[in-house]
């Protein structure tokens, strides 16, 4: 059974996730750890639970989700996997990071790419990759339907949606991604977003002011 540990890192209050199961194999998703104290908090948890990190995943590559990429790759000797359409997004971070005040940002490169229909595997667990552009060109969500889990990045939030005013963002595309991919999941599916608390597909279908389905 997949266990999920959430950490809230950096000034953007980004959710970093560690997923693991009974085998102790783990994956790190969207490491937003920029400060050394944040990196220590994350690595201390991994060490305390005797986890073996086997993969690093970005749902998308905006600055707040990739601060810790180089740290994770270096410390655990793992590869970074992203969607090909977000490679330019990742490479652009080193250009604008200083303007945001992050002078010590460490650039990272993708080692592999996933596509719609691929699977992320660790231990005895599997996550399906669904392509959900709109917030970022290469955004994906990661789903385990057996446990009703959706690692949603910045697509859908509790009562809100991802912003679309950043380069590569498209409002209509994002809404389509939500309706076609996220809302196609079971109503009981728990969405673990890139910011804020969890929500469910069923709740957002009914009440989300941006994307609720009309009755």
From TrEMBL:
SUPFAM superfamilies: Metallo-hydrolase/oxidoreductase. Residues 13-195 form the Metallo-beta-lactamase domain. Transmembrane segments: none annotated. Its cofactor is Zn(2+). InterPro entries: MBL_Glyoxalase_II, Metallo-B-lactamas, RibonucZ/Hydroxyglut_hydro. The keyword Methyltransferase does not apply. This is MBL fold metallo-hydrolase. PANTHER family: HYDROXYACYLGLUTATHIONE HYDROLASE GLOC. It comes from Reichenbachiella carrageenanivorans. Keywords: Hydrolase, Metal-binding, Zinc.
């Amino acid at each position: 059974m997949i266990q999920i540990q959430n950490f809230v890192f950096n000034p953007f209050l980004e959710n970093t996730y560690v997923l693991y199961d009974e085998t102790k194999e783990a994956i790190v998703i969207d490491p937003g750890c920029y400060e050394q104290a944040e990196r220590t908090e994350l690595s201390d948890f991994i060490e305390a639970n005797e986890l073996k990190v086997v993969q690093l995943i970005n749902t998308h590559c905006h600055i707040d989700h990739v601060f810790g990429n180089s740290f994770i790759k270096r410390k655990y000797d793992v590869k970074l996997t992203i969607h090909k359409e977000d490679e330019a997004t990742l490479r652009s971070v080193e250009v604008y990071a200083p303007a945001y005040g992050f002078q010590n940002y460490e650039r990272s490169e993708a080692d592999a790419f996933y596509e719609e229909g691929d699977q992320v595997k660790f231990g005895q667990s599997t996550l399906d990759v669904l392509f959900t552009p709109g917030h970022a060109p290469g955004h994906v969500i990661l789903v385990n339907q057996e446990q009703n889990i959706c690692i949603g990045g910045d697509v859908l939030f509790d009562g809100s949606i991802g912003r679309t005013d950043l380069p590569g963002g498209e409002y209509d595309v994002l809404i389509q991604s939500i309706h076609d991919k996220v809302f196609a999941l079971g109503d009981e599916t728990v969405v673990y977003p890139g910011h804020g608390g969890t929500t469910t597909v069923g709740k957002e279908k009914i009440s989300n002011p941006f994307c609720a389905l009309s009755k």
